[in-house]
Sequence to fold (1181 residues):
Amino acid sequence: MYTIKTYVFPESLAEADELLQRDTRNTAVLGGCCWLKLGRRRIGRAIDLTRLGLDQIEVKDGWLELGACVTLRQLETHPELTCRFDNLLGQAVSHIVGVQFRNCATLGGSVFSRFGFSDVTCALLALDATVVLYRGGEVPLETFLGSPIAFDDILVKVRIKDDGRRAAYQSVRRSSTDFPILAAAVSCLEGKWKVSVGARPARAMLSAQAAACLEAGQGPAAAGEAAAHELTYGSDLRAGADYRRKLAAVLVRRAAQTCMEGNR
Amino acid sequence: MKVKITVNGMLYNKHIPNDMMLLDFLRKYGYVSVKRGCDTSNCGLCTVWVEGKPVLSCSYPAARADGKNITTLEGVKEEAASFGRYMTAQGAEQCGYCSPGFIMAVLAMRRELTDPTEEEIAHYLAGNLCRCSGYAGQTRALRAWMHDKPWEKEVYA
Amino acid sequence: MNLKFVNQPIPKLDGAALTGGKGVYTEDMVPRDCLVVQVLRSPHAHARIKSIRKDAASRVPGISCILTWEDVPQIRYTLAGQSYPEPSPYDRYILERTVRYVGDPVAIVAGRDKDCVARAMRMIQVKYEVLEPVLDFETALDNPVVVHPEEDWFHHYEDGGDPKRNLVCTGCDAHGDVEEALAQCDVVVDQTYYTKANAQAMMETFRTYTYLDHNRRLNVVTSTQVPFHCRRTIAHALGLPKGMVRVVKPRIGGGFGAKQTLVSELFPALVTLRTSKPAKIIYTRKESFQASNSRHQTRVHVRVGAMKDGTIKAVDMHALSNAGAYGEHATTTIGLVGHKSIPLYARQAAFRFSWDVVYTHTMAAGAYRGYGATQGCFAMESAVNELAEKLNMDPARLRLMNLPHVGENMAAYYNEPLTSCALPQCIETGMEMIGWKENYPSVRVDDHTVRGLGMAVTMQGSGISALDTASVTIKLNDDGYYTLMIGATDMGTGCDTILAQMAAEVLNCPMERITVDGVDTDHSPFDTGSYASSTTYVTGSAVVKACTELREKIAAEGARRLNIHPERAEFDGDTVFDRTHPETAITLDKLAQTLVAGVGPQWLTATASHCSPTSPPPFMAGFAQVEVDLETGVAKVVDYVGVVDCGTVVNKNLARVQAEGGIAQGIGMALLEDVNYDPKGQMVNSTFMTYKIPCRTDLPEIRVAFEESYEPNGPFGAKSIGEVVINTPSPAIAQAVYNATGVRVRSLPITAEKILMGME
Fold:
């Protein structure tokens, strides 16, 4: 059950920010709204950003810029994304519920909410991605995910370095459109690796040790084991911690393997 | 708040509650093909088009639809009936409760994908749950429909 | 037999309306000024209400009434949609001071719109004395915590139940000396299997609206499989004369047994009685999951013994079933666990089937397609697969050796005779289709992927023997078209269509000349309803009887108009004519007109009722090929073949879709569908986000074939199809997973986690 007292379409980010600062507690910046009705929330003012042109995907100055209102379906189908990073983002989001859902759910909503099960954050973490906040400015995604949610700020866009890195995504789900039980994203650029593990079930994190293994030439299996041991895993209704740890070793290994094959 | 929403070509100039979802707006004005099947955006029964793209009307704020064109099954009646005949020829509609949302996804897919493989079709439609049919009858209907391409011959109003 | 309509793939009569999105379901018809009804539910699994304060909530503008336990009739009843006297205990009030599961109703709130109702719901103050719940069905029996201590608990039958022990019923059915027979067997399998409280998860949730008509009768429009039982139970529970209640069933968005139990009906009905206003309730998906009914969670212990040559000599089964908080369908589902699984192997065997059904503080179970047979099938068929391995025999051959023979009595199936069975052919065909020879037991795909094969067989019934009753009226209208009136409830299955096919066959007329409508207890003839796989077989027989009688009446009435001896008159569907002088004839439309105008009128109708003394079982063989990723444990069904003997297939398309849909639900049960409660008794899988039913990318393109037997007691040789189709996937998939990995999962669902952790 949720209620909305006033619903506004600000005409600029400055206006959105001004409205948000008036009462951060009772104001909600809306994303795709797919789970709005799940919460019990009395929203004083709902801020809808969909008229600010934030649904654009742009390539400029060696960066990809993805607006907060870009939908998951755009991540899946946009030609500038499908041709990059071995279609990592497309692979990551393509299992999420269905096309109708992905036409609603947004990048901003997914990243800002920091859901543990998020495929989007798991994939972005393996890329050199930053988050641009209206007040907080540009911060690395990893930093952003590790800091508390700033309810007084607005996520404007996500930037990804257009560095041509290879990448691969792996996940295991109960039903093929379910949240992942575990997800892994791996990328590689000129011998430098990034290994991200999501749905642990806590939020996605990078495994520095797994990356180090790969950089040291110890191979995908060692990287998988490193990710399994370095990160923590928990239990929820989808799976237990021990199973997740085993999956982490396998999925990281497979993703790394795919990256290496791509590099050959 | 006040909104101007165009549904199947008809403009609705209405005051709506700020927290109304598009699904409730559409049913309120008689578009009963739009069904609710869940509370968690998982089932696809409420699929309609916003500016031609399939969305979950249960999760799309009616306010956000202000100024937009909405299409429900009632707005593509003839094409839906044409595909519907392929469904009923298989008995694949069964209880029929998921049919309108499913058909809206199918017709959107037809516009969006060119010559999709069976795997791409299944993937596109994965967000439409059906508990009766096990999907195989829907697959047969789709196969025949994609083969016949009736939309190339028929004229829809 | 030369059939024109039966055995044909005729589209469903309502197909165009359903695919056209027409407003034909309950919610689409709700009157505009309807009160919105919602139910405040218990957050505790077991508690006693100390007090409820509703004054402030009642003052919320727009609120019409708020009802609590003090406001409802103190009449015990059951919600189970079964023939009277119901075999389910009377253990409910509409609202009660004691609440017995998370979701049990505490207050009924009715108001002008959903906003005011929601506001009022938040303002009702309930003080609970929270009590210890009993949540684990394995420790419920003789637990010091008692679910139903009340003195007015009532049961029509003596079947061993004792609510003070949390025991709904207990019993045993045996033939021969099982212990002795087991002792003599060369090989014995002794294992325990667990199945979950699966949700039926039909796409249309429970919903009802009610109003008083000009005669102040309570009209109930509801999404139900059992309109006549509904009428009786509503009248009883509300203390009304039965004549004061009318139930109407429009199109239904699926049921699968869930709607064989009343769920949403009584709440708006009571509101309408108290306010005289129309009222509606639409269940949310969450309510549908956690406050309705489900499959009975079951533990089945099986001992099955055989001689070295594969002859099964002993079957011993004990089933423990979780009724949940209330006993709907508890005493009857349990019977099918054994009675529909053991007969397949009891031909030369001593058997014993014993059972206990217990109350717990979880949601009440009810009817779900398969109705206990599904649980029994998982246990029995898994045990037989394990037996085959111990005997070092092909499991298909083991079954072929032991199956019952046509013409014999089946001691384990209420001693009913087996009058038709093509199960051996189903097995042979299925083996061919799945590639048994090439693929059994498993094939390696790559270094970490193996495909395993598994199979299972099953039987169900066709209606409840000597109980299920169907009546059918067929009317000849002026202009020569017919109205077929039935009380059986089409819930998407297409029974309106297949019954019209039978009518068209008997009356030898095009389908277009027959109209069929939904059910209205004021106008439709009595039918127990659509459950227990009864409609094709029981109602179908009544259709044949009624239409045959009408045919005769038409011929006789034609003879009278033609002034010929009735024995010379013949009716060919269009014309009544003199057999010896065919030019002496009267067309049906002419005859129909003269029957309702002028001298000697005789409006023709025929009504027939049917009840079958036996319940001929349909059979099915199911074959699964499952691909397992040995590193992740992920199992995917890559091929599923179901071969069905439902007697004569009345409608090839609809039977096929029934089978495909049933198999899909069975695959969901096998791999995905999990119901869990937290330690306080809150269901944790109560949305489609957490309770996963198969989506299309989870399933292979299910393949179905038919091996038609001819059932002499069925209409045109038909038996049932609705339920038998859900049973085989769980045991077949479990066996396929074993053949791929060496891991036996005996507790559903078979998750990737169980498989991988089992491989250690």
Chain A is about 35% helix and 25% strand. Residues 73 and 99 of chain A are 7 Å apart (CA to CA).
